[in-house]
Amino acid sequence: MNGLVRIITLVFSCFLSVICCSQVPTQVILGRVIDLEARTGLPGANVIVLNTEPVIGAVTVADGTFRIEKVPVGRHSLQASFMGYKTVIIPEILVSSGKQTILTIELEDIPITEKEVEVKAGIDKDKAINPMAMVSARSFNVEESRRYAGSLDDPMRAVSNFAGVVSNAGVNSNEIMIRGNSPKGLLWRVEGADIPNPNHFSFTGTSGGGFTIFSSQVLGNSDFYTSAFPAQYGNALSGVFDMRFRNGNNTRHEYAIQVGIQGLDVSAEGPFSKKQSGSYLFNYRYSILYFLQYIDPAMKNVIPQFQDLSFKINLPTPKAGTFSIIGIGGASSITSEPRQDSSEWHTLDDRSKTSLDNLMGAISLNHQIYLNRQSFFRSYISATYNKIVSDESIMESGYQMKPQSSVDHRDMRINASLTFNRKFGTRFTIRTGFIYTMLFYRLDVSSINPFTGIYSQINHGNGQTGMVQAYAEARNDFTNNLSLTCGLNYEHFFLNSHYSVEPRVALRWQITGKHAVSFGYGSHSQLEDIGVYLTEVPVTQSLTAQPNRLLNYSRAQHFVLGYDNLIRQDMRLKIEAYYQYLYGIPVIRGSYYSQLNSTGYYVSDSLINKGSGRNAGIDITFEKFLTKQYYYLITVSLFDSKYKGGDGIIRNTMFNTNFVINLLGGKEWTIKRKNIFGANLKCSFTGGEYYVPIDLEQSIAQHREVLNENAAYTLRLPAYFYVDLTVSYRTNHRKFSGIWALQIRNLLNQKPVTGYAYDDFNHSIETQRSLGIIPLFSYKVEF
Length: 783
Description:
With about 775 residues, the protein is mainly beta. The chain is built from six helices and 43 strands.
């Protein structure tokens, strides 16, 4: 308590002491310049702040670190150069008085040739951090994407602006689909470790939920993949979000406190001692979104709440390498109660009782050690825990509760991994490693079978199983303009001894300084959630069987052809055409059902690996990076997604929205030479999903929802249009900065149709809609 009082006193004393001061504050830029592939520091590299008079800059010391003092607050571009490496420009870095600016600058070396090479400075803002990635990969720039309107400081919502990504129609969900695939096809990684779905209000097997359980405040630049990803990534069909936590400031203690309608957000970082270079970083959020009921009556009977904690401890040692501990954890719950007066039952929600409790945590101990300047070992051991408890029931006319589903799903995973990376000269790099996963589970799931209407237990029991992955990949730069990566991933599932061998290859040719073409191929596979393999179906009245225990992997072949045009240093056009063939997909024999349409919910029937599908389309990205205080981003995705179920009929997949168009833009204004006012707008237009219509006549006759299987996925929901707005004002003072922000999701208060449900009380088909406008207002102080 005394510490909190001192912090508050410091904030206000700083404010009062400088409120009349008109001098432009300055700040420190510090960081490290490293080799892109070897990850070693580059001593003697030059780092300068462009367009300053006199020139401000620094030279890196033995470990590649640098420090630039007295940089005026505002936007600045940095240039980093080193003999034998490509010079890079990092444009429009935000320097504020509240926190020091910390950068990791990666330089790519130039293969030595007999001819003289002219080295020009370049901007590769969207280039993947992973040097093995050449197609369908983009760097996730945290500071940049945080400006995107509608992102709400949520990494998942931010990547939904990228080409090839379709966000969920509901403003209250951050679930995404990649190139026509189910959202469950996405792989999550944090600091190299695979983790379960890291979202509040999530359900098993999905990629999304309400909010990611860690803020983008703790993230460093990360990679997002939408197809044909490198061999080090396995057990994913559609994409990978490979996230990295940034290191805390190891030179001084810094804090941030944000208070808003949505709750409290507190973060801190700093060194452990002045004699060591170790650091800590943590972020805590607590939120109760009661205010939503005053905006949307549909939320009146729903109480969502969540809290989460994330941290990173970084401990470099002189000889034993660098150790780090990364942790994330979140708890969330949401409940709704039925109305007790049947005269108020106008919708299905009025007589529904639901509850959802999530608890997810992950902790990882990482270690990296360099054998020499060309090779290193990286290893980790991690543990994750995931708990999903949900219940759903309907109040009938006699006020009795009729159960619909009951889920108690808990699993714990222990992972161990080792990676070796070796760079040979300036042209050739290899990377190889393995991941071992032990899974412990406890399941108790009951649900209504949608085909028979029978409520029964479909999962019960506990046990353990595991999986091992091994991979090897290499990159060769034949010339300065022609590069090839190839690799192989192997997976083995202990539960049923199935395995998968997956080759990957990518080629990039830089035709000229502005034009490049690329090609990628990848064989990929993915396991189902453990509950699918343990599904129990009745054989007799007293005997059940597990027919899905021997299910094999779902598999896909990815083909990608890309074209890049660097129109100018701050403007880029990127086009990718792709084709994805999926096979071995679990389906129900003789039925339209396929796991390609699954959003992660439990299966209550026998499945066979006889289904298939295909996704084909083109993604277009036209982007002007932030320069001269404005930016814009236009992404267009056109695609077609089809599947074949257990009945052999080709249909649209559920996620075949056919198109998504995103228009984003923003402008900043500098006020009084030290403050920044920003306005950002996003417009998104997306086609509707396909669905299975309800057979009203049969539903009334059987007093339950009965689907018209003959018309499965022949009808689609209406297309939807969203407008999001973010307005912010940053004030820079001598020792702290303040940020006022208004973020409005769904500015036009659209409520798109998200589906249909049968209401047996009213004997009608009810239209289900998303929430309306969500405004979030906050104030944040950094010091």
